[in-house]
Amino acid sequence: MFLKFFLTLFLFFSFAVKACEKPTMPSTEEWSNWLVEVKKEAINYGISQKTISQYLIYIKPQKKIILRDRCQPESTITLEEYLYYRVDKARVVAGRNVLKDHKKILNEISNYFGIQPRYIVAVLGMESYYGRNQGKIDTITAVTTLAFDRRRSNFYRKQLFAALKILDDGLVPSGELIGSWGGAVGMTQMIPTTFLESAYDWDGDGIDIWNSFADAFASTANYLTSIDKNPWSNDSTWGREVLPPNNIETIYSSLKQVDPIGCGAVKRRSIAKSLPEWSQLGFKNLDESILPQRSDLEARLVAPDGVKGRMFLVYPNYKNILYYNCSSYYAISIGLLSDKINN
What we know:
alpha+beta, 2 domains, five-stranded antiparallel β-sheet
């Protein structure tokens, strides 16, 4: 069984690498000229010269980081394959243990922020396997490389200055900012701008999302429930998988949003309808029972693999999850993992 599992992983990553665009690395002169401009801009952001000199003096772009950015699994596998690796039995069992072992503090944080504990735990499970896999890549190297690369340069330029700010302000207990290839750090795998925006010191001894479950839980809850994004509803879930009606191919195009606003996964949600309205169109629960008849709960259809793939009716909380990672696969995985952890 283990041999089959590792063979599957090998084939998956081999396919992903072959399917992605190979990066062209900059010349020494291009890199040096660009770095000079970045250092000047960092001064304008209020970063001290000491920090700039310490962290940007010997830095070099990393080809492996650019390759990883262009070969993300959401673009190379199906939802079914994505769920196989991320909502697995071991992650569910570990999540249930975290929910049990930290019940008291999770309940306190849940009551304070107004969010069910299972979603907090599910995010940590998805992001870092409950703190076990936080990444070992120097964050400044990661975000500087991606800031130079053309694909998402503006986004990662902001992450670079935020990462330098975190170090400049001494907000990392170890003094070393280390995380994923994409610049995400800690148990929560927050990008630097999100860390500055939402990282939360729950236990009163300084923000530590690397070692403190209390701070990691509170930071996750703080981000998911931020009012400027979308108020989290504590009396509803994220959504549910549904069976579509027989005429789904005929009606599917009529359900699309007109001129939607937001990131890709937000735009791909359908128009909003109440659950009774979805029932009238012929949508049912997986066991073919009728959907809950809550007329006050807005739901949108999500079909990440198209009209012939699995379908979900998602509620407003789903959009908050997309702010953490704007991927339909990711948000659905968080929802399903939270359901299994709760059971």
